[in-house]
Amino acid sequence: MVSEGYKMTYFGEQSEQDKGNKAIGANIPLMFGLIYVTLLFLFPKYYRKPVLIMAMLPLIFIGVVLGLLVFGKSPDFFAMLGLLGLIGMNIKNAIVLVDEIGLQLNSGLASVNAVVEATKIRIVPVTMASGTTILGMLPLLGDAMFAGMAATIMGGLFVSTILTIFVLPVTYCIFFKIKSE
């Protein structure tokens, strides 16, 4: 029983983690808005390319959930920070592929051939960059503080890389109404 004029509160790591997660959550709409505006500057003549790139983002959650489940980690504060970094890595991979498709189209290739050729050209750089990041996260899996972040990045990047290579070209063809001749 607490005396009159006093109150009892519980505090510690969990409350600080909750504050941090709320701060991250409050700024996520701003982050997505800034990413979209940046993509508009990168692709000034096309509003659909930034939309296409942003449409790939929800797919990373498949890998995030899978990574957390496979490695038995919980979605803590550091896992959420890893998710923010993962969003940036996924957008970078998508930009690289979409930009290469544009370069192939500008070189005179037919639309379907440009998409296929761009995917073949960028498959190695995209997978190597993702693979080195995934392997770089391995030592953190045993760490008490950063294990959730490592699992988030590893699972999310693994799945998003596969989806970037296979789903993004198909989605590009759908967005731009590209059909095989």
Explain this structure.
The protein is mostly helical and 181 residues long. Helix content is 75%, strand content 0%. The chain contains 6 helices and no strands. The protein has helices at residues 13-42, 48-55, 60-71, 77-106, 111-137, 147-175. It is elongated. It starts with 12 loop residues before the first helix and ends in a 6-residue tail after the last helix.
Helix-strand blueprint:
Elements: H1 13-42, H2 48-55, H3 60-71, H4 77-106, H5 111-137, H6 147-175
Short description:
This protein has 181 residues and is mainly α. It has 6 helices and no strands.
* Number of contiguous helices: 6
Radius of gyration, in Å, reads: 20 Å
Largest sheet: none
On the 0 to 100 scale, the average pLDDT is 89
Percent strand: under 5%
The low-pLDDT segments are: none
* Helix content range: over 70%
Principal-axis shape equals elongated
Task: Name the structural class.
Answer: mainly alpha
Could you give the distance between the termini? 79 Å
The oligomeric status of these chains comes to: single chain
Helix-strand topology string: HHHHHH
* E-strand count: 0
Q: What keyword list fits this structure?
A:
181 residues, mainly alpha, 6 helices, 75% helix
